[in-house]
Amino acid sequence: MDELELEFELHPQLAQDCILLGEFPLCRLLLINDANYPWFVLVPRRAGVSEIYHLSSDDQVQLMRESCFLAENLADTFAARKMNVASLGNMVPQLHLHHIVRFEKDPAWPGPVWGKLPARSYTDEQVGDIRTKLQSLMSGELSFVPQPV
């Protein structure tokens, strides 16, 4: 573990808005607590990083691997029409990549999801279902965090 990983702390806004699902080799996998959309976030466990180019070359490559792996598996799992993958950071400066599964029938289609509807919290059962779906596809790549009871 290097110093940047030891000093890593999840931004308070992400901690408030998300459910921790697991850990890839580089990134923490979060689920935005908004049942309107399957919306996931990757956060590299590196302190003080706000842009992809701030990562080392090896971490940049690993981030792309994890992001592509996640996007492909989410698209398959949820039968996505389109995967929206974005790193904005205007409100939360910590580097994080949104992975939003989009459908032609989702409430914001074809526009952006931000601010379209108030967030609808997931039930524990819905989070459990998402964990089960992802575990069947991503075991071996992602260390899942047990769901709190």
UniProtKB/TrEMBL annotation:
Protein name: HIT domain-containing protein
Organism: Marinobacterium rhizophilum
Pfam families membership: HIT (PF01230)
Residue stretches in coiled coil: none
Domain HIT intervals: 41-109
